[in-house]
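Here we describe the complex-level prediction in full. Unlike the single-chain runs in Section 2.1, the two entities below were treated as one system.
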Amino acid sequence: MKTEAFRTHLGEACRNRTFLAGFLILASVVVVALFAERIALRPYDEISVREKLQPPSASHFFGTDHLGRDLFSRVIHGSRITLKIGVIAVTIQVLLGVTLGLLAGFYGGWRDKVILFFTDATWALPPTILAIAICAALGPGLTNVIIAVALVSWARFTRVIRAKTQSIKNLPFIESARAFGENDAALLFRYIFPNVVPVTIVLATLSLPATIITTTALGFLGLGAQPPSPDWGVILSDGMTYMTRAPWLSVFPGLAIIYVVLGFNLIGEGLRDLLDPRLKI
Amino acid sequence: MGDFLAFTAKRLFQGALVVLTVSFVLFSIMHMMPGDPIQLIDNPRASEETIERLRKEWGLDKPFLVQYGYWLGNVLRGDLGRSITTGQSVTSLIAGRFPFTLKLTLTALLLQYLVATPLGLWAAYKRDSWFDKCCVVVTSVLRAIPFFWLGILLILVFSVRFGLLPVSGASGPASYILPVLTLMLPRLAETLRITRSEVLEILREKHVATAYAKGLSEGAVMIRHVLRNALVPVTVMFFLAVPWLIGGSIITETIFAWPGMGRLLWKSVSVQDFPVVQGIVLLIAILTVVSTTLGDLLTGLLDPRIRVELRREQA
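The structure predicted for the assembly as a whole is:
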């Protein structure tokens, strides 16, 4: 029975072209990240001064940088950093945002007011600014960027999940579960939580692109990953210096970012159509 | 109108509370930062007594909350402290840079709306035509482009390859073109999409059918009934876009060496000049709260349905 239902869902997913395109793009990125050592031609930090600032060629697909490092290998390895930061930051956002949203929506009253106030306060600052301020306080580095980006974007989850919880908690099945003597914790996690999972998945996929763009921007500003890390933002900021002599340094990492972001955007929009078509984000 | 005044008062109070919270968090971060302000004088000959006297004079021996009170009082009088690196007053530093940021962001914002609103209206009106499809494709591509990379690409094409426009700085109208494009293109895509979906929704409403049934011409229906209603969310978005633009201006100003507030913020962060960072972030928080509050108030004023909902919520 279950496999049959799964098959129907799979068929539906395959017919949704947006989802399929996004899925294929993302799958290719994951494969590249997993097998980076095999795909890359050489280590991302192998310096070869004789070959510095070489244009793209058969031996260096994307050319080389000012230290003669192979740009293709660096971009390939960079996919790991991007996926890692994105997934960790969004996981923190989900844990924080969904928990607060469930609590605020379920209990209402003063708890709701307090949580809502902090949600609004976080929204009072543009994410980039808030992330930069947090990085300024914590100092540059990959971990701090993850913390900063997670802390600035959980509020969206809280808002959506709160509204969803409010509408679910008055449905008859919650009433009957309560009548059977289920306590609050069980109601929240066994009855309400499963119903907000689809929205959470859609929100998380749609929030990944923004997270990735913000983290690469912070890397570009020198606040995130530090050289010689092959972070795409770091490569782009290095490339700015050699713009006239080596424009390929500024082109390829950007194309890589677009590819990943486009993949997540498509998959998110596809998932929204499949799971919750009325969701307006 | 009475309930609108109550709504206004409530929103203003909320906004003030949010600004106060942000200021408190900023002060706490500054307080927790390692390093004693006294040591910043960096005079090894200063005796223990002098240091003790200064500590008293500056109120550094007082409890945390009292210090916050002092600081807040100074901020209200327009004194944001001094930069650690240059010793200049933060207020005058910001005042020197702010006009450049304002000129850049306002130009981008106005152009963005002048272009995106008519295009969105037209795309929705000609739904599923080739023009509509082009708009959808172009906007989804634009949305995937990180705006800082867009800036780099524009420099590569227009300054490096063709040598048409200046690479950096703020000298004359030509230097505005690339930074303004970098700031406005991604937002333009967003505005176009929202205008389009908003117009599509309005086109399905009954009052539009009624207008057609009355025998009004296409143009009259589109402008008097559809555009006027679509302008409500679009106007609100105009105000909500201000903070995003300021956020975007940090990186844009950094790329184009624009002498604005965003670049100052970036420089101050990289040398850990926290008083300057604090001042700029506080100013941005105030700007954001003011513009979102204005946006909310405007929604209430333009769309009576929201006021009704509000009254229901309170009842």
